[in-house]
Amino acid sequence: MKTLRRIRALREALEPVVAGRTVGLVPTMGAYHAGHSSLFEAARSECDIVVVSLFVNPAQFEAGDDLASYPRDEKRDRRLAKAAGVDFLFAPSTEEMYPAGYSTWVDVEGLSERLEGRFRPGHFRGVATICLKLFNIVRPTRVYFGQKDAQQTAIVKRLAQDLDLGIEIRVLPTIRDEDGLALSSRNVHLSARERRAAIALPRALEAGHRAWRSGGDPVAAARATLNGLAPDYVEVFGTDERLVLAAAVRIGRTRLIDNVPLDEETP
Question: Could you give the residue numbers annotated as active site?
Protein backbone atom coordinates (compact mmCIF):
# COMPACT_ATOMS: atom_id res chain seq x y z
CA MET A 1 0.00 0.00 0.00
CA LYS A 2 1.23 3.47 -0.88
CA THR A 3 0.35 6.42 1.36
CA LEU A 4 0.17 9.66 -0.63
CA ARG A 5 -0.50 13.18 0.60
CA ARG A 6 -0.50 15.28 -2.57
CA ILE A 7 -3.20 15.35 -5.24
CA ARG A 8 -0.60 15.40 -7.98
CA ALA A 9 1.23 12.42 -6.47
CA LEU A 10 -1.97 10.34 -6.31
CA ARG A 11 -2.89 11.18 -9.88
CA GLU A 12 0.60 10.28 -11.07
CA ALA A 13 0.48 6.99 -9.15
CA LEU A 14 -2.91 6.06 -10.59
CA GLU A 15 -2.34 7.11 -14.19
CA PRO A 16 -0.18 4.16 -15.31
CA VAL A 17 -2.28 1.47 -13.61
CA VAL A 18 -5.95 2.38 -14.18
CA ALA A 19 -6.36 1.92 -17.94
CA GLY A 20 -9.05 -0.70 -18.52
CA ARG A 21 -9.35 -1.44 -14.81
CA THR A 22 -12.05 -0.74 -12.22
CA VAL A 23 -11.21 1.66 -9.40
CA GLY A 24 -13.00 1.60 -6.03
CA LEU A 25 -12.93 4.62 -3.72
CA VAL A 26 -13.79 4.58 -0.03
CA PRO A 27 -13.98 8.14 1.38
CA THR A 28 -13.28 8.20 5.14
CA MET A 29 -12.31 10.47 8.00
CA GLY A 30 -10.23 7.79 9.71
CA ALA A 31 -10.54 6.21 13.17
CA TYR A 32 -11.27 2.92 11.45
CA HIS A 33 -13.52 0.20 12.84
CA ALA A 34 -15.19 -2.91 11.45
CA GLY A 35 -17.65 -0.78 9.49
CA HIS A 36 -14.81 0.79 7.52
CA SER A 37 -13.20 -2.61 7.05
CA SER A 38 -16.41 -3.95 5.49
CA LEU A 39 -16.24 -1.16 2.89
CA PHE A 40 -12.55 -1.82 2.17
CA GLU A 41 -13.24 -5.53 1.74
CA ALA A 42 -16.20 -4.93 -0.57
CA ALA A 43 -14.14 -2.58 -2.71
CA ARG A 44 -11.31 -5.12 -2.79
CA SER A 45 -13.63 -7.90 -3.93
CA GLU A 46 -15.35 -5.81 -6.62
CA CYS A 47 -12.57 -3.60 -8.01
CA ASP A 48 -9.11 -4.00 -9.49
CA ILE A 49 -7.67 -1.01 -7.62
CA VAL A 50 -8.77 0.28 -4.20
CA VAL A 51 -8.21 3.87 -3.07
CA VAL A 52 -9.11 4.99 0.46
CA SER A 53 -9.11 8.65 1.42
CA LEU A 54 -8.30 9.63 5.00
CA PHE A 55 -9.23 13.25 5.56
CA VAL A 56 -11.00 14.86 8.52
CA ASN A 57 -12.89 17.42 6.48
CA PRO A 58 -13.19 20.72 8.37
CA ALA A 59 -15.82 21.97 5.93
CA GLN A 60 -18.42 19.57 7.30
CA PHE A 61 -17.96 20.69 10.92
CA GLU A 62 -19.73 23.82 12.11
CA ALA A 63 -18.45 26.22 14.73
CA GLY A 64 -18.53 24.54 18.13
CA ASP A 65 -18.74 21.07 16.55
CA ASP A 66 -16.33 18.29 17.47
CA LEU A 67 -13.61 18.85 14.84
CA ALA A 68 -10.80 19.22 17.39
CA SER A 69 -11.90 16.15 19.35
CA TYR A 70 -12.64 13.93 16.37
CA PRO A 71 -10.63 10.71 16.95
CA ARG A 72 -7.42 10.42 14.95
CA ASP A 73 -4.92 7.55 14.77
CA GLU A 74 -3.32 7.52 11.34
CA LYS A 75 -0.73 4.89 12.21
CA ARG A 76 -3.43 2.40 13.22
CA ASP A 77 -5.58 3.39 10.24
CA ARG A 78 -2.71 2.73 7.83
CA ARG A 79 -2.19 -0.69 9.35
CA LEU A 80 -5.87 -1.65 9.04
CA ALA A 81 -6.13 -0.33 5.49
CA LYS A 82 -3.05 -2.27 4.43
CA ALA A 83 -4.39 -5.46 6.03
CA ALA A 84 -7.62 -5.05 4.05
CA GLY A 85 -5.72 -4.93 0.76
CA VAL A 86 -6.01 -1.21 0.04
CA ASP A 87 -3.68 -0.13 -2.79
CA PHE A 88 -3.52 3.62 -2.18
CA LEU A 89 -4.22 5.58 1.01
CA PHE A 90 -4.74 9.27 0.23
CA ALA A 91 -4.14 11.32 3.39
CA PRO A 92 -3.90 14.98 2.38
CA SER A 93 -3.57 18.03 4.60
CA THR A 94 -6.30 20.64 4.90
CA GLU A 95 -4.10 23.03 2.91
CA GLU A 96 -3.83 20.50 0.09
CA MET A 97 -7.60 20.14 -0.23
CA TYR A 98 -8.50 23.76 0.52
CA PRO A 99 -5.57 25.95 -0.56
CA ALA A 100 -5.48 29.69 0.10
CA GLY A 101 -8.24 31.44 -1.81
CA TYR A 102 -10.45 28.36 -2.08
CA SER A 103 -14.00 29.58 -2.76
CA THR A 104 -16.01 26.91 -4.63
CA TRP A 105 -18.72 24.92 -2.86
CA VAL A 106 -21.39 22.41 -3.86
CA ASP A 107 -24.96 22.43 -2.54
CA VAL A 108 -27.47 19.64 -3.14
CA GLU A 109 -30.78 21.36 -2.49
CA GLY A 110 -33.79 19.72 -0.87
CA LEU A 111 -32.16 16.57 0.49
CA SER A 112 -29.59 18.63 2.41
CA GLU A 113 -32.13 20.67 4.33
CA ARG A 114 -33.84 17.95 6.36
CA LEU A 115 -32.76 15.88 9.37
CA GLU A 116 -29.01 16.48 9.82
CA GLY A 117 -29.23 19.60 7.69
CA ARG A 118 -31.50 21.29 10.23
CA PHE A 119 -29.13 20.65 13.10
CA ARG A 120 -25.79 21.00 11.29
CA PRO A 121 -26.08 23.95 8.88
CA GLY A 122 -23.48 23.73 6.13
CA HIS A 123 -22.59 20.13 6.94
CA PHE A 124 -23.79 18.67 3.66
CA ARG A 125 -22.25 21.48 1.65
CA GLY A 126 -18.94 20.31 3.08
CA VAL A 127 -19.76 16.66 2.37
CA ALA A 128 -20.85 17.28 -1.22
CA THR A 129 -17.85 19.48 -1.94
CA ILE A 130 -15.21 17.07 -0.60
CA CYS A 131 -16.87 14.11 -2.32
CA LEU A 132 -16.88 15.88 -5.68
CA LYS A 133 -13.23 16.84 -5.20
CA LEU A 134 -12.30 13.24 -4.38
CA PHE A 135 -14.29 11.94 -7.35
CA ASN A 136 -12.45 14.34 -9.65
CA ILE A 137 -9.07 13.41 -8.19
CA VAL A 138 -9.50 9.62 -8.20
CA ARG A 139 -11.98 9.14 -11.08
CA PRO A 140 -13.40 5.98 -9.48
CA THR A 141 -15.67 3.38 -11.05
CA ARG A 142 -17.44 2.74 -7.74
CA VAL A 143 -17.60 4.60 -4.42
CA TYR A 144 -18.46 2.88 -1.14
CA PHE A 145 -20.49 4.21 1.79
CA GLY A 146 -22.26 2.71 4.81
CA GLN A 147 -26.04 2.65 5.31
CA LYS A 148 -25.64 4.33 8.72
CA ASP A 149 -25.17 7.62 6.88
CA ALA A 150 -28.37 7.21 4.86
CA GLN A 151 -28.98 10.90 4.24
CA GLN A 152 -25.38 11.45 3.18
CA THR A 153 -25.53 8.58 0.70
CA ALA A 154 -28.79 9.91 -0.76
CA ILE A 155 -27.14 13.30 -1.24
CA VAL A 156 -24.04 11.80 -2.86
CA LYS A 157 -26.20 9.71 -5.20
CA ARG A 158 -28.10 12.83 -6.21
CA LEU A 159 -24.82 14.67 -6.76
CA ALA A 160 -23.49 11.90 -9.00
CA GLN A 161 -26.74 11.73 -10.95
CA ASP A 162 -27.28 15.46 -11.41
CA LEU A 163 -23.69 16.13 -12.49
CA ASP A 164 -23.52 13.07 -14.79
CA LEU A 165 -20.44 11.70 -13.06
CA GLY A 166 -20.92 8.15 -14.31
CA ILE A 167 -19.99 6.70 -10.90
CA GLU A 168 -21.71 3.80 -9.15
CA ILE A 169 -22.51 4.61 -5.51
CA ARG A 170 -22.48 1.40 -3.45
CA VAL A 171 -24.21 1.43 -0.05
CA LEU A 172 -23.37 -1.41 2.34
CA PRO A 173 -25.30 -2.49 5.46
CA THR A 174 -24.59 -0.86 8.80
CA ILE A 175 -22.15 -2.85 10.94
CA ARG A 176 -23.23 -3.14 14.58
CA ASP A 177 -21.87 -4.32 17.89
CA GLU A 178 -23.41 -7.45 19.38
CA ASP A 179 -25.87 -5.33 21.36
CA GLY A 180 -27.07 -3.54 18.23
CA LEU A 181 -25.30 -0.19 18.53
CA ALA A 182 -24.09 1.00 15.15
CA LEU A 183 -20.31 1.25 14.94
CA SER A 184 -19.12 4.85 14.80
CA SER A 185 -15.78 6.56 15.28
CA ARG A 186 -17.51 8.79 17.81
CA ASN A 187 -18.44 5.85 20.06
CA VAL A 188 -15.01 6.11 21.70
CA HIS A 189 -16.20 9.31 23.38
CA LEU A 190 -18.96 7.49 25.30
CA SER A 191 -18.39 6.70 28.94
CA ALA A 192 -19.39 3.24 30.18
CA ARG A 193 -22.68 4.64 31.48
CA GLU A 194 -23.34 6.53 28.24
CA ARG A 195 -22.51 3.46 26.19
CA ARG A 196 -25.17 1.48 28.08
CA ALA A 197 -27.69 4.28 27.55
CA ALA A 198 -26.90 4.42 23.82
CA ILE A 199 -28.44 0.98 23.29
CA ALA A 200 -31.83 2.68 23.47
CA LEU A 201 -31.22 4.19 20.02
CA PRO A 202 -31.08 0.97 17.94
CA ARG A 203 -33.78 -0.57 20.12
CA ALA A 204 -36.06 2.40 19.43
CA LEU A 205 -35.47 2.06 15.70
CA GLU A 206 -36.25 -1.65 15.91
CA ALA A 207 -39.51 -0.81 17.67
CA GLY A 208 -40.34 1.70 14.96
CA HIS A 209 -39.57 -0.88 12.29
CA ARG A 210 -41.89 -3.40 13.92
CA ALA A 211 -44.63 -0.79 14.16
CA TRP A 212 -44.24 0.07 10.47
CA ARG A 213 -44.54 -3.56 9.42
CA SER A 214 -47.69 -3.99 11.50
CA GLY A 215 -49.33 -0.83 10.15
CA GLY A 216 -48.54 1.40 13.11
CA ASP A 217 -46.74 4.71 13.51
CA PRO A 218 -42.97 4.08 13.39
CA VAL A 219 -42.04 7.51 14.71
CA ALA A 220 -44.32 7.29 17.75
CA ALA A 221 -43.14 3.74 18.49
CA ALA A 222 -39.50 4.74 18.27
CA ARG A 223 -39.92 7.83 20.44
CA ALA A 224 -41.72 5.77 23.08
CA THR A 225 -38.76 3.39 23.28
CA LEU A 226 -35.91 5.90 23.59
CA ASN A 227 -35.75 5.30 27.34
CA GLY A 228 -35.26 8.93 28.32
CA LEU A 229 -32.93 9.93 25.48
CA ALA A 230 -33.91 13.28 23.97
CA PRO A 231 -33.71 13.05 20.18
CA ASP A 232 -32.82 15.84 17.80
CA TYR A 233 -35.20 14.10 15.43
CA VAL A 234 -36.96 10.83 14.70
CA GLU A 235 -38.35 10.83 11.17
CA VAL A 236 -39.21 8.69 8.19
CA PHE A 237 -36.89 9.76 5.41
CA GLY A 238 -37.60 8.92 1.79
CA THR A 239 -35.06 8.80 -1.01
CA ASP A 240 -35.49 7.85 -4.66
CA GLU A 241 -34.68 4.25 -3.79
CA ARG A 242 -35.80 3.49 -0.25
CA LEU A 243 -37.57 4.58 2.90
CA VAL A 244 -35.72 4.70 6.22
CA LEU A 245 -36.56 5.52 9.81
CA ALA A 246 -33.77 7.84 10.98
CA ALA A 247 -32.91 9.31 14.36
CA ALA A 248 -30.24 11.38 16.06
CA VAL A 249 -29.65 11.62 19.82
CA ARG A 250 -27.20 13.39 22.08
CA ILE A 251 -25.67 11.42 24.91
CA GLY A 252 -23.45 13.59 27.04
CA ARG A 253 -21.18 15.41 24.59
CA THR A 254 -21.58 12.76 21.90
CA ARG A 255 -24.09 12.90 19.08
CA LEU A 256 -25.12 9.61 17.47
CA ILE A 257 -27.13 8.96 14.31
CA ASP A 258 -28.68 5.72 13.12
CA ASN A 259 -31.43 4.44 10.85
CA VAL A 260 -33.20 1.31 9.69
CA PRO A 261 -34.47 0.75 6.14
CA LEU A 262 -38.21 0.19 6.38
CA ASP A 263 -38.26 -1.91 3.21
CA GLU A 264 -36.13 -4.69 4.71
CA GLU A 265 -37.40 -7.74 6.56
CA THR A 266 -35.33 -7.08 9.68
CA PRO A 267 -33.77 -3.84 10.93
Answer: 36
Residue 8: phi, psi to the nearest 5?
Answer: -60, -40
Which of the four CATH numbers 3.40.50.150, 3.40.50.300, 3.20.20.70, 3.40.50.620 does domain 2-172 have?
Answer: 3.40.50.620
Domain boundaries, the chain: 2-172, 185-260
Count helices and strands in the chain by DSSP H and E runs: 10, 9
**Cβ contact 132:163 at 8 Å:** yes
CATH architecture of the domain 185-260 equals 2-Layer Sandwich (3.30)
Query: How confident is the prediction along the chain (267 residues), in pLDDT tens digits per residue?
Result: 999 999 999 999 999 999 999 999 999 999 999 999 999 999 999 999 999 999 999 999 976 567 888 899 999 999 999 999 999 999 999 999 999 999 999 999 999 999 999 999 999 999 999 999 999 999 999 999 999 999 999 999 999 999 999 999 999 999 999 999 999 999 999 999 999 999 999 999 999 999 999 999 999 999 999 999 989 999 999 876 789 999 999 999 899 999 999 987 654
| pTM more than 0.85 | yes
Tell me phi and psi for residue 219, to 5 degrees: -70, -45
